Amino acid sequence: MNEKVVLITGAGRGIGAAIAEKLASNGYHLILNYLTSEKETKLLQKRLEEIYAIKAICIQADISKEEDVQNMVAIALQAFEKIDVLVNNAGIAIDTLYENKTVDNFRKTLDVNLIGTFLVSKYVGDHMYEKKKGTIINIASTNGIDEYFPMCLDYDASKAGVISLTHNLSLQYAPYIRVNAIAPGWVATENEMRELDQEYITLEQEKIYLKRFGKPSEIANVVSFLASEDASFVNNAIIRVDGGQR
Ligand code: NAD
Questions:
Q1: Is the pTM higher than 0.85?
Q2: Tens digits of per-residue pLDDT, 53-112?
Q3: Ligand 1 pocket mutation, candidates 189, 194, 200, 238, criterion most atoms within 8 A of CB
Q4: 2 falls in which pLDDT band (50, 70, 90)?
Q5: Is 186 in the pocket of ligand 1 (CB under 6 A)?
Q6: Is the CB of 69 inside a 6 Å radius of any atom of ligand 1?
Q7: In angstroms, rounded to a whole number, what is the distance separating the alpha carbons of residues 49 and 57?
Q8: Most buried residue, 53, 103, 138, 236, by most Cβ within 10 Å?
Q9: What span, in angstroms and rounded, lies between the C-alpha atoms of 82 and 72?
């Protein structure tokens, strides 16, 4: 088959769903991973197949569990025979006051955001390397670079880890696989906005040069570029998409 195939983790909602929509509009076939949001993911699958005449499948898997990841990649390859693009988007944040932060919180966050990204990259990356073709895009965060919030210090550490992983994977899979990361700043996803009050939103928006949060589609546009041949010499890059932040 000549058409490109993308696997997106945590694709049922938020930034993941926007990435699925953008790549479907580019003609990609989709492998939509979800953990719990089966209904939303299947609705998304049906909608995108109808609008863009592409093929999509949904696979339930917890990316922090090696067996789940192995099964997911096996099912995906059985369905499409190849994966051209991997978008490691799934992630969690457990926001709690520093005083209440537990080892369990910390481990859970690292398990999903860092170990999960490693596991999916490893199983898909090894397949890509064998085919000598493919690209991996990790969704990190400006929290992994220079934005610090003690109430999510575990999240910040996990995203710094994803950035380090990006550098190592681009070295490991050279010269065939490009590996890049996007570091979004504030993005107004439904889940994110539900947890913030207006006073806090205004305060945070003041720190952004564009005076607003980003839209999920604005992250998806950068994924679309990185996945494309237009980005054929972009490798080992960490791209901030934060509207200018200080
Ligand atoms: P979201 O919570 O709306 O979506 C995350 C998705 O990941 C959900 O569908 C969730 O079910 C899935 N997921 C969680 N744990 C999983 C697991 N173990 N296995 C498989 N799937 C799992 O979040 P979002 O705002 O759309 O964020 C998407 C990515 O972008 C995350 O990695 C997040 O850290 C990153 N990010 C978001 C923002 C923001 O402001 N929204 C900023 C910077 C980075």
A1: yes
A2: 999 999 999 999 999 999 999 999 999 999 999 999 999 999 999 999 999 999 999 999
A3: 189
A4: low
A5: yes
A6: no
A7: 10
A8: 138
A9: 13
